Input
Amino acid sequence: MLELHGIRKSFGKIEVLHGVDLEVRAGEVHALLGENGAGKSTLMKILAGILPPSEGEIRIEGQPQHFADYDAAIEAGIGIVFQEFSLVPYLDAVENMFLAREMKTRLGLLDRRAMRARAQEILARLDVGLPLGVPVARLSVAEQQFVEIAKALSLEARILVLDEPTATLTPSETEHLFKVMRELRRQGVAIIFISHHLEEIFEICDRITVLRDGEYIGSCEVAEVDNDRLVEMMVGRRIENSFPPKPAPRPEAPVVLDCEEVQLRRGGPVSRFQLREGEILGFAGLVGSGRTETALAMLGAYPAARCKVLVDGIETRFREPADGLAHGIGLLPESRKEQGLITSFPILQNVSLNNYGKYRSNRWFIDLDKELACTEAAMQSVRVKAPSAHARVDTLSGGNQQKVVIARWLNHDMKVLIFDEPTRGIDVGAKAEIYQLMRDFTAKGHSIIMISSELPEVVGMSDRVCVFRSGGIVATVEGTDINSGTIMTHATTGRIDHVA
Ligand SMILES: Nc1ncnc2c1ncn2[C@@H]1O[C@H](COP(=O)(O)OP(=O)(O)OP(=O)(O)O)[C@@H](O)[C@H]1O
Ligand SMILES: [Mg+2]
Output
């Protein structure tokens, strides 16, 4: 169905794709794998006509293609769901699906009824039900994803690219997506699937292609490889144990953050927990169970019915997140793009943000050399892949943008860091490094609250785990109770639906 041959791509003087091949058959799910910055999204943008290749050839069913723009690629049957969604938030699902390709009545007016009917037909084909009349901004991430897929299919895509679609989905939403993908595969669509979750590759994919640093490493059947081999192809070395050893429990360690009560809604559960010096406290639970909201409420960034928090034993009222900073508490938010980064700024300023006090050389001036040196050290510690500290954040790969946020917080002198989904979109190699950095941080006597939807991560990293259900903490587990079975039982009242 699709052949890419010898694709090269340079941005300015830097070549990021060095002659990549990719062959995808009709009716297969083909995984495109590689570390952060390997070139996966760039290759897909070339396929979509959004970026011109510097060299190389694209063929569809043997016919050479030259896409002048995205429209030309769509015309040729290519549909893409980007790593960063491209929906218009104020428009509803139908308006988004037919944006710039509106169906018209004979009088040239918008044929809303026909568009709605067509949208419903496509969503039915996907077996997806979602509200059509509301702005997509109000839909869940999973629903928005299905709108993107429906949009691609409304354009008769024969080749469908899904760039990290599962990064923001819950296990059951992912299962639903896989069902849709299997159905599309049966209908003969060629699907290119990008994900850093290797277990998903084994579940849904037929063949794989691996890139490393813009080089083509190879392609094969999924059945021919195992997990270790895949990692080795991607990273170029073996990764032994991604979780660093846990220190011995220290129940006598001083409490740095004492959450006496946080109640999100009147009548809802009341959360209580204590964060001790030098520990990683996991926040587990299903998506929507109130983990992020509780953390934000503590910092005064989310409305709560009741909230009483003690920092180092002193009752403290946070009116806004900046108060948290003043008390040495930092938050690495869930949606980096909107809340964690100024993407049109260089890495340098993003890492320095609200950290300038540290670089002041006197009352008026900032020591720019020190700023650069500190930033470069921070970038190195999380291995941000970028030409320099002056590169704009929006020219980085998704995973490297994530690392920039982590670099900022590790560069701050914080006592407590709240990591919300710390490794979302991060490749396997870098994950292990981030886990190590988190342990180094707590070994210095600092503390971490880690909100995570990835059970293996919760189990592998937490010294204790608070489990959330319907808006608050329902259990706190430690020791050998930190296992996926126990945690999921608390998270779901004993009904274990999806154990990752
Ligand atoms: N517009 C741009 N200008 C300069 N460099 C860019 C631009 N877009 C991408 N790059 C660089 O190209 C390389 C490949 O990036 P790409 O986004 O394709 O990676 P990826 O494999 O999708 O990674 P991830 O898993 O993190 O999403 C990166 O080093 C990135 O910094
Ligand atoms: Mg990418």
